Automatic annotation (TrEMBL):
The chain crosses the membrane at residues 6-23, 72-95, 115-132, 152-170, 182-202, 214-235, 256-277, 297-324, 345-363, 369-390, 402-425, 431-454. It comes from the Bacteria. This is Sodium:solute symporter family protein. Keywords: Cell membrane, Ion transport, Membrane, Sodium, Sodium transport, Symport, Transmembrane, Transmembrane helix, Transport. It is found in: Cell membrane.
Length: 467
């Protein structure tokens, strides 16, 4: 990185951090810090909530992955990754049903009321792992625009970015996160548009939008995986689900639907960066946006870095606030060591600081950012029956545990390579992933219903005996 490049990139990072801190509102009470309300207690507005959901789920690693898949499989790869955003309307509708039918104030409340406290604790552990992964996997992407892993610039940029994001998160908690999300959403959309302005004229539009084949071994297997995970993947991400309880039910649902559709379009559009690389013979080298940016010149690379910083920042601040709520509010209530009164903002601030440090340790150890999505997504397939079929039971802890732990076990076996080859569907790169998710969904669903069926059979036997 020469002097001009260093001045531009480091200068933007510094300006970004200062501006975000200066503009973010300060929370004066715990309701604002943990729930995003204003000083008068008013909930988040609909369009602010929509922008927040939209940008906080467009992770830096996600847009990088989308572009990489576009480079590998053309538009099929882009569609495959963008399809994950369709899970946002799915999650919004199910949360709407949960709130209106059960009166639950959080997913932990809901799980406790239907499946018991141990079920809620198991769920809390799963989402903490997810949140932990979100820290390093986003800061590492930002660091990659300043240097290579192992270089001081890489680590310095990632840690400076962490400090800036932590600073304004400590200032306002969830309220600050949602407010800055609106700014970051506008910046993201503007610079994605700037990137497309450079890419589209350099290609035949028809070729750009039709490159790729709908075959199992050409990315279609990953598209099917995404569609299977629509009903489980979003529920282990409190960055998303926490926002399902900060406003009125109908307002929330509208925000989720609009944000999900916008997210699908935005991620697919950005995957065209990878398709451009594929059409023009550019070696993605595991980071298609950076490779394309370098090939198009300094301006394009700078635009790419701004896209990554804004998407990473919106996710990281949401991760800090979700960690604060999970560990300062939700877990103490599950352990029956806290009342309904919200804890001091200082407790949440301490949680943020600790995880800002611990969450970056995997980055220094060197870890593949793709693992933060693919492994965790498979491990939680057992959540799909829990949220899809909860209406079939009023109380059934075993239904949760047989479904959840079966999915977790299958995810672990997949990660360590112990799933039999016969489970693979097709012969593509994601054949085994597709097989585990398809068969796993059926097995987890069976596990959910087994206790309900047994209970009904026992009830009939008892009734017959009494007769």
């Amino acid at each position: 990185m020469n002097f001009t490049e260093a001045t531009l990139f480091w200068g933007f990072l510094l300006v970004y951090g200062v501006v975000m801190y200066a503009l973010s509102p300060k929370s004066k009470n715990a309701n604002s810090f943990y729930k995003g309300a204003d000083d008068q207690g008013n909930p988040v507005g609909q369009w602010s909530l929509t922008a927040s959901i939209f940008i906080s789920w467009i992770f830096a690693k996600s847009v990088t992955n989308a572009a990489n898949l576009g480079a590998a499989y053309g538009v099929v790869g882009g569609l495959a990754y963008a399809s994950y955003w369709l899970s946002i309307p799915v999650a919004g509708y199910i949360i709407y049903l949960i709130r209106t039918q059960t009166g639950a104030r959080s997913l932990q409340d809901f799980l406790t009321s239907r499946f018991g406290r141990l079920a809620a604790l198991a769920f809390a552990a799963a989402i903490l792992i997810r949140l932990y992964n979100e820290v390093w996997s986003n800061t590492a992407v930002v660091g990659g625009y300043f240097g290579l892993p192992g270089e001081w610039e890489y680590y310095a940029a990632a840690m400076l970015f962490t400090v800036f994001t932590l600073a304004y998160s400590l200032k306002g908690g969830l309220r600050s996160s949602i407010f800055t999300d609106v700014i970051q959403a506008f910046v993201f959309v503007f610079f994605v548009g700037a990137v497309l302005f450079l890419i589209i004229p350099a290609n035949d539009t028809s070729a750009l939008l039709t490159n790729g084949e709908f075959r199992l071994n050409a990315g279609f297997d990953l598209l099917l995986v995404a569609l299977l995970q629509l009903f489980s993947y979003p529920f282990h991400d409190p960055v998303l689900t926490d926002r399902g309880f900060v406003n009125k039910e109908k307002t929330m649902l509208k925000s989720f639907v609009v944000a999900g559709l916008l997210g699908f379009v935005a991620v697919f559009v950005f995957s065209l960066v990878g398709v451009h690389a594929r059409l023009n013979g550019i070696d993605a080298m595991g980071n298609a946006p950076a490779a394309v940016g370098q090939s198009l010149g300094l301006a394009a690379l700078f635009f790419m870095s701004v896209v990554m910083m804004t998407s990473a920042g919106s996710t990281l601040d949401s991760t800090f606030t979700s960690l604060a709520k999970s560990l300062a509010v939700d877990l103490p209530r599950l352990a029956r060591r806290a009342s309904d009164k919200l804890p001091s903002m200082r407790v949440g601030a301490v949680v943020m600081v600790i995880f800002a440090f611990l969450g970056n340790l995997p980055m220094f150890a060197g870890t593949d950012i793709l693992k933060a999505t693919t492994i965790s997504g498979t491990m939680v397939i057992g959540l799909a029956p829990v949220f899809l079929f909860y209406g079939f039971t009023r109380w059934s802890p075993w239904s949760f545990h047989l479904s959840f732990w079966t999915g977790l076990g299958l995810g672990v076996l997949l990660a360590v390579g112990l799933i039999p080859a016969s489970w693979a569907i097709g012969d593509g790169k994601y054949a085994m992933l597709l097989g585990v998710n398809a068969y796993g969904f059926l097995i987890c669903t069976a596990g959910f219903f087994v206790p309900l069926v047994l209970r009904r059979l026992v009830g009939r036997s008892l009734a017959a005996g009494e007769a």
